[in-house]
Design brief:
The complex is a heterodimer.
Chain A: H1 3-18, H2 56-68, H3 72-75
Chain B: E1 4-8, H1 18-27, E2 37-41, E3 49-53, H2 62-66, E4 72-74, E5 80-82, H3 92-96, H4 132-138, H5 150-154, E6 160-164, H6 165-179, H7 188-192
Antiparallel strand pairs in B: 1-6, 2-3, 4-5
Chain lengths: 80, 210
């Protein structure tokens, strides 16, 4: 009878540790290779002028300018 | 970091389908697949509205959430892409997408679905940028050439805007302020906030009310 509290504590401990052995149920790691970021180019005959291939800041600034070119208020000098 | 988005201005879209044609030609999209299409509401009724729809590159994309093989990924620029080598063509993404963006070539043997195909924001796929392998599977990688998606760049009325979300939202907001119509729609404040210059544009008065 004196052993029962110890057995009970040991059982509770084992039960508690049981969760530690549980394997994650997610897909085993992402296998997708995201590829190289756009700013890394490469330089091709079709590469737009106005930015430096491989320079992230240059690419971002260029894309901002290019996107802003869709705004005819800016293009026509009538920015509001 | 940029967060690439499309916006289509329904007040400007003239349903010319130039964006659809440009997308198909630029990316060699196979028969039976349209990565982009123009949808017209109240077609034939005066006041009809058209918008050009493709993958919206959602910030919390449902296609990514439901894909059983986890073939989707998001680039640093917020473009949602997928790996056709991993895709099993199950079609779950097609059911999950509210825009009908995922497309499946349906002209194979026994109507085989094949791999999913969708708008890539002209950003290619996981293969090397601007490589032939990338082009064969996903089409042109214009972003790596410092260009925006062709659908937006060819749009004759500039109804379709593409680029960093902040930039295109600013362009659209400025249009709405100039035309003094459009900010009364539900959700405007949530999506576009108030213009930097002051309050939002006043709602347009309905015809006949003076």
């Amino acid at each position: 009878m004196r052993r029962s509290p110890y057995l009970l504590a040991l059982s509770a401990l084992l039960l508690g540790l049981g969760a530690c052995g549980e394997r994650p149920q997610e897909l085993a790691g992402r296998q997708i290779n995201g590829g190289a970021p756009a700013w890394q180019g490469p330089t091709t005959p079709l590469t737009a002028p106005g930015w430096t291939v491989g320079d992230q800041r240059s690419w971002q600034a260029h894309m901002q300018t290019r996107a802003q070119a869709q705004n005819e208020y800016v293009r026509l000098g009538q920015a509001r | 970091m940029a967060r690439m988005k499309f916006i289509c201005d329904s007040e400007r879209c003239i349903e010319c389908n130039g964006c659809v044609t440009a997308c198909k030609a630029e990316n060699h999209v196979p028969w039976g697949v349209n990565r982009r299409r123009v949808v017209t509401l109240n077609d034939g009724v005066p006041g009809e509205k058209s918008i050009s729809v493709a993958c919206m590159h959602c910030s919390d994309a449902p296609c990514m959430a439901v894909c059983p093989v986890d073939c989707f990924y998001r680039t640093d620029d917020g473009v949602v892409l997928h790996d056709k080598d991993v895709c099993i063509g199950c079609g779950y993404c097609s059911y999950a997408c509210p825009f009908g963006a995922p497309q499946f070539p349906g002209n194979g043997t026994f109507g085989l679905r094949g791999k999913m195909d969708k708008c890539t924001f002209c950003a290619g796929g996981p293969e090397a940028n601007s490589s032939q392998a990338e082009f064969d599977k996903y089409g042109r990688n214009r972003l790596s050439e410092g260009r925006l998606p062709l659908c937006a760049e060819v749009c004759s009325t500039k109804a379709l805007l593409a680029g960093d979300g902040d930039v295109v939202a600013d362009i659209f907001r400025s249009r709405v302020v100039v035309r003094n119509k459009g900010s009364e729609v539900w959700g405007w404040g949530t999506a576009y906030g108030k213009p930097a210059g002051g309050s939002t544009a006043k709602p347009a008065k309905a015809e006949g009310t003076k």
